């Protein structure tokens, strides 16, 4: 829990001991990006490239954990106008022991700028005039529905913010073939635009150019064919890529869920002081798993609708109007779809960490109770 906030020098002391210590071992999920862990690995794997691999220019911020946080009732006064998850920045006092606490701040808080200046040394004039590169980066992350590294990388590329490839190599520890899946899914459309006799290598190159938001003739042709105003084309393309990425990850999420559902039926609860409390926590966990199942079904329905519209309606039946309607729907619901993906990815990834494969699913009663409370709130 956060300690009472009194004064700019003390108000960001954060003491979420046990939960933050677990976060130390989580590199990334749909709602979390642990820069501290990324740079710990970089120091060991590529120390000579560390100086070129910073995410932020500010080195203190590069030891932070970035989190998408659902504001609780008592926190809403900090950012009353915020809709959706807020971006929370947590910087541990000790990068090796998160349970010692740290400093935390929400982007958009009244004293956010003061904190950046007093705690992290950002020049005050750069805060006032909005020219600081790190604060601009934080603002972009706040707008995103998820902190999944693929989505973050794509959005930053669109905004012209370059992060060294070595950073992404160590930060993105999952879905190495996602980009290839997206490009290959996009290639049939590009093939129609450039002609069926064009060399596949050129088709792949053009597909990558379009997906990387390059302003070229093919992008204009595709936007015109889909009857989409070109000013909206970058947003449409970003939503399109995101939908294909979610499709790529769907089977992984379903596989993770199947494993967790099986675990819920054979959970071993330890450190039980009250059997009634333990059984209540078990039943609530089963309820949480059922909630995850419903969320996953809803998410799959949306992804399936986009997939069917693209492949069946557009590519097979040349139904431009039908696909355009679905594409616009995906763009309009991109934020909600991203939140749904981020939440599912975060919950299932954390449960995967909590219950390692090939080990009996043991969990302490108080840990299970805390877990159920947090996930009930997150999925509520």
Order of helices and strands: EHEEHEEEHHHHHHHHHEHHHEH
Strand content: 5-15%
Strand-pairing-aware structural class: alpha+beta
Net shape: globular
- Radius of gyration equals 22 Å
Helix content: 55-70%
Fold and architecture overview:
There is one protein chain. The chain has about 375 residues and is of the alpha+beta class. It contains 15 helices and 8 strands. Helix 8 crosses helix 9 (about 200-210). The longest helix is centred in the last third of the chain and has 42 residues, at about 275-315. The protein is globular and about 70 Å long.
How are the secondary structure elements laid out?
Blueprint: E1 13-14, H1 17-23, E2 28-29, E3 32-34, H2 35-45, E4 65-69, E5 86-92, E6 102-106, H3 112-118, H4 124-129, H5 133-143, H6 149-158, H7 165-171, H8 178-194, H9 200-211, H10 217-225, H11 233-264, E7 268-270, H12 275-316, H13 320-332, H14 334-354, E8 362-364, H15 365-379
Parallel strand pairs: 7-8
Antiparallel strand pairs: 1-6, 2-3, 3-4, 4-5, 5-6
Give short descriptive properties of this protein.
alpha+beta, six-stranded antiparallel sheet, 8% strand, two-stranded parallel ribbon, 380 residues, 2 domains
Brief summary of the model shown:
The protein has 380 residues and is an alpha+beta fold. The protein contains 15 helices and eight strands.
């Amino acid at each position: 829990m956060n300690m009472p906030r009194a004064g700019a020098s003390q108000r960001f002391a954060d003491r979420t001991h046990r939960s933050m210590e677990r976060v130390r071992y989580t590199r990334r999920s749909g709602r979390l990006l642990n820069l501290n862990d990324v740079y710990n690995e970089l120091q060991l794997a590529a120390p000579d490239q560390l100086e070129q691999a910073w995410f932020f220019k500010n080195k203190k911020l590069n030891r932070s954990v970035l989190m998408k946080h659902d504001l609780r009732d008592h926190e809403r006064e900090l950012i009353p106008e915020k809709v959706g998850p807020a971006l929370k920045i947590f910087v541990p006092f000790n990068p090796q022991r998160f349970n010692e606490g740290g400093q935390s701040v929400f982007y958009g808080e009244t004293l956010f700028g003061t904190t950046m200046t007093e705690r992290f040394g950002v020049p005050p004039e750069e805060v006032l005039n909005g020219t600081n590169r790190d604060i601009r980066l934080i603002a972009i992350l706040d707008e995103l529905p998820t902190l999944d590294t693929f989505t973050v990388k794509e959005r930053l590329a669109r905004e012209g913010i370059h992060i060294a490839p070595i950073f992404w190599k160590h930060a993105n520890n999952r879905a190495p073939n996602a980009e290839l899946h997206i490009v290959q899914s996009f290639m049939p459309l590009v093939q129609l635009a450039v002609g069926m006799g064009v060399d596949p290598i050129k088709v792949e190159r053009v597909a990558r150019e379009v997906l990387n938001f390059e302003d070229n003739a093919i992008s204009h042709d595709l936007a015109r064919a889909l009857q989409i105003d070109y000013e909206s084309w970058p947003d449409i393309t970003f939503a399109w890529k995101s939908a294909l990425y979610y499709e790529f990850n769907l089977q992984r999420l379903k596989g993770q869920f199947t494993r967790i559902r099986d675990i819920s039926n054979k959970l071993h609860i330890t450190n039980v002081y009250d059997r009634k409390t333990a059984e209540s926590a078990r039943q609530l966990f089963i309820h949480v798993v059922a909630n995850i199942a419903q969320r996953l079904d809803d998410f799959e329905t949306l992804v399936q609708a986009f997939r069917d519209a693209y492949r069946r309606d557009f590519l097979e039946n040349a139904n431009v109007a039908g696909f355009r309607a679905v594409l616009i729907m995906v763009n309009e619901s991109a934020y909600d779809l991203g939140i749904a993906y981020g939440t599912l990815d975060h919950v299932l990834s954390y449960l995967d960490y909590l219950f390692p494969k090939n080990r009996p699913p043991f969990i302490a009663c108080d840990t299970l109770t805390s877990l159920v409370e947090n996930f009930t709130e997150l999925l509520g």
